[in-house]
Amino acid sequence: MGDQEEGFAFYCFLKILLLQWKKSTNRTGKDEKVMKLEQLEKLLQDMSLEEKVGQMVQIPANMLTEGGLLTGPTDTMEMSEETTRLVGSILGKTGAEELHNIQKEFVENHPHHIPLLLMYDVINGMETIFPIPLAQGCTFSPELVERAAHAAAKEATATGLHVTFSPMLDLVRDARWGRVMESTGEDPWLNAELGRAMVRGYQGSSKVQGELLDLAKEGNIAGCVKHFAGYGAPLGGREYENVELSERTFREDYLPAYQAAIEEGCVMVMTSFNTLNRIPSSGNQWLMRKVLREEMGFDGVLISDYSAVDEMIRHGIAEDSREAAKLAILAGVDMDMVSNAYVKYLAELVRDGEVEERLVDEAVWRILKLKNDLGLFENPYKDGAKEKEEILFLCPEHRGLAREMAAKSFVLLKNDEILPLEQENAGTIALIGPYADSTEMFGAWSFPKRPEQGVTIKQGMEVRYGSVKVCRGCFMQDEDKQTKFGVKEKYTTEELETLLAEAEKLAGKSETVVLCLGEHREYTGEGASRTEIGLPKHQLELLKRVQAVNKNVVTVVFSGRPLVLTEVVELSRAVLLVWMPGTEGGSAIADVLSGAVLPEGKLSMTLPRCVGQVPVFYNKFRTGRPNEEGTTVGYIHGYIDESIYPLYPFGYGLTYTTFGYSKVSVSQEIMKKTETIAAKATVTNTGTREAVETVQMYLTDVKGSVVRPVKMLRGFKKVALKPGESRKVTFTITEDMLKFYDSNMVYTSEPGEFEVYIGPDSDTKNKAVFRLV
Ligand code: NOJ
After folding, report:
1. pLDDT tens per residue, range 429-467
2. pLDDT band at 68 (very low <50, low <70, confident <90, very high)
3. What is the DSSP letter of 664?
4. Is 305 a catalytic residue?
5. pLDDT band at 75 (very low <50, low <70, confident <90, very high)
6. What whole-number distance in Å separates Cα of residue 678 and Cα of residue 668?
């Protein structure tokens, strides 16, 4: 192709992108942004190949120090100062003043003054820490999740950030995997609803509701859906393990939540570390170009996960960084997060004719467009300002929201008529356990600058009950165990015994014991898979010794995953699962223990009886030898040494009242594909306290051309009921809810019988039937 022809082809390509953009954002006129896009076209044309590749590179925060840029052969990326000046993005720095200075220096020194994109993992809050995403899942409240995401976005943008690496919408089913804490759980429908809510909260708009993207508006931040795709299904729950999923399971169970967030307008997607059916995501052309871009309609920026492009060498797919860069650009990865591939070899690959420059232009165009959407060409600092940090960080409004969300995420697993603990009994409550006075309640992906601002249970209880007697009881970790960073607790048997004996003594002379146990926050998150998912052995010993002298044990459990709590439940009169509740954890726990706030969380992930049951999840496929009684004898589905049933099912959670459900009824027993029908049940508060119930609707496809799940969540509604009050709860069933990939891999619904269940959890037997014709 001659120069002129090439120029024309490039011009046409930009025009097409521009038209697509106008269409996708419903813009028709030549408004300000569109004018700006025409300037962007010009900018892209003016950029050198090195400048363009620079935009596609993200460097880590540790390359920027107070003393200036850390570059050269010994640095993470082994980059020259000149190349570093051209990069498009920085990962992992925060602080309004610092980011202002960095941005200023980069913009001023860049040949075209292109601002940096500043990205960070704001997973469950910036400085005000909300409950971990798995706990947010237990709220079953898109409204609350959206509000928390927006509060996090406000704090994050105040500190100068533009993009958060959230929502994480990986479907998770294996509690051994450390990252289950980052997902909203094991259900595709719930994850999709909450993923949408997070995107709305971060980006401040909903594409589904026809709202225009306005990332430049104060308080809005760009979201990034991750990890595309299937990262939540590593074999054996082992971190960074490969993933093998049938295309049917992948599409039906794993894709919907990512898809929902993209529909909602999420502007970025991150590739995953794992292979999917033997191909690493960052080099998977089918996954990225066909599924993500073509089928799911994603037109934003695709970033790799941290060093994932170079990791294709160790996967044995690429010979070196050069080949890894080629695989990634062919798959459509726009930005290379902290690896040597793009920065070192992409320009060379273009010059050698191995990669068309068009692919680079496409990627850079998307990156420039995102910067433009964030308003960075007008104001590269966006909202970043020290004064805003001071106003927003840990402000009363955000703290209040964190407290409300925490309380609503707690799952009451058992209550043998002991909770709530009335305030009159204040003097007789003992608070025992390694979590009793700890601020370590943030979860693995939270990095508050002032962790001491977190409220401990002791502090929360003191506000409610006046002074409380506190004793540590044992250490957080067993002496032979370590966190993912290799941190151990060193203590002698005598020191442990002293703590245990103190606890026994205090428990013996108290009316009630609130025992605060759990796994260490650094036993969870990335790089923290576990083979044993119970409490540390010394914590269990503490429970046994306390229980031997006092039967009134209320156990509060902290965790980042569904732990095996079988013994804990047996030995305690009440068990409250509080996950990693965040900044206001202690206040929220006191709110719930005292009954000032009623628990309303429902499990977003099944709780196993023992680790051997894992992965255990409710929406499994039917077998030829179902085991409804949960027997362990005979040629029947299950185990010979343990029930097939989990300790508590998905959707389960108690409160301080009880609810009754009427039988389910359907508006019509025959449903035509073009119609909808309604399923109803009346829910009654049969107890003595006003409370909220999360009413859940599940569907079962009785017979299909392929085996269908036992049950599938297809709706949930929260109802607040006074004692004695009843409310009819109605769900609309649409044909879409009945669709699946049939035996020919066609996404369709099949005529036949369906069961609709309405009840308090996934174990409900309360059903009606209808036929699809
Ligand atoms: C690796 C993690 O997998 C990803 O979730 C995170 O966003 C990046 N590191 C950046 O911190």
Report:
1. 999 999 999 998 999 999 999 999 999 999 999 999 998
2. confident
3. P
4. yes
5. confident
6. 8
Closest-lying ligand 1 atom to the alpha carbon of residue 224:
7
What is the spatial distance between Cα 327 and Cα 336, in angstroms, rounded to a whole number?
A: 12
754 φ, ψ (degrees, to nearest 5): -130, 150
Q: Is 305 in the pocket of ligand 1 (CB under 6 A)?
A: yes
Best residue among 165, 231, 304, 307 to mutate for probing ligand 1's pocket (most ligand atoms within 8 Å of CB) is 165
Closest-CA residue, ligand 1 atom 1, reads 306
Half-sphere exposure of 739 (CA within 13 A, CB side): 13
3-state secondary structure 366-380: HHHHHHHHCCCCCCC
pLDDT at 233: 98
* Pocket residue to mutate for ligand 1, from 172, 239, 526, 529, most atoms within 8 A of Cβ: 526
Q: 231: Cβ below 6 Å to ligand 1?
A: no
Cβ neighbours for 183, distance < 8 A, ≥ 6 positions apart:
133, 134, 137, 168, 169, 170, 171, 172, 191, 232
Specify the length of the chain in residues: 773
Which residue, among 325, 416, 380, has the nearest Cα to 656 in the 3D structure?
416
Active-site hit among 121, 305, 373, 478: 305
Largest Cα–Cα distance in the chain? 91
For ligand 1, the distance from its centroid to the CA atom of residue 278, given in whole angstroms, is 21
The Cα-based distances of 520 to 105, 178, 411, 434, 528 in angstroms read: 40, 12, 19, 10, 11
Query: What is the whole-number distance in angstroms between the Cα of residue 320 and the centre of ligand 1?
Result: 23
Residue 366 in contact with ligand 1 by CB distance below 6 A: no
Asked if pLDDT for residue 16 goes beyond 60, the answer is: no
pLDDT tens across 473-505, in order? 999 999 999 999 999 999 999 999 999 999 999
Smallest Cα–Cα separation from 112: which of 33, 48, 163, 161?
Answer: 48
Give 370-413 pLDDT, tens digit per residue: 999 999 999 999 999 999 999 999 999 999 999 999 999 999 99
Tell me, using a 6 A CB cutoff, whether residue 334 lines ligand 1. Answer: no
Nearest CA to ligand 1 atom 3: 305
Q: Cis bond leading into 256, ω under 30°?
A: no
Percent of the residues in the chain that have a pLDDT greater than 70, as a whole number = 95
165 pocket-lining for ligand 1 (C-beta < 6 Å)? yes
Ligand 1 centroid–CA 551 distance in Å is: 44
Beta carbons within 8 Å of 512's beta carbon, 6+ residues apart = 418, 421, 425, 428, 429, 430, 550, 552, 553, 554
pLDDT digits 0-9 by tens, 537-559: 999 999 999 999 999 999 999 99
The protein residue whose alpha carbon is closest to atom 4 in ligand 1 is 305
The span from the CA of 471 to the CA of 516, in Å, is 10
Our CA dihedral for 763, 764, 769, 773, rounded to 10 degrees, sits at -40
Handedness of CA 227, 231, 232, 238 (dihedral sign): negative
- Which position has the token pair 């002074």? 467
Q: Is the shortest distance between the CB of 226 and ligand 1 below 6 Å?
A: yes
SS3 state of residue 665: strand
Cβ 767 under 6 angstroms from ligand 1: no
For the Cβ of 690 lying below 6 angstroms from any atom of ligand 1, the answer is: no
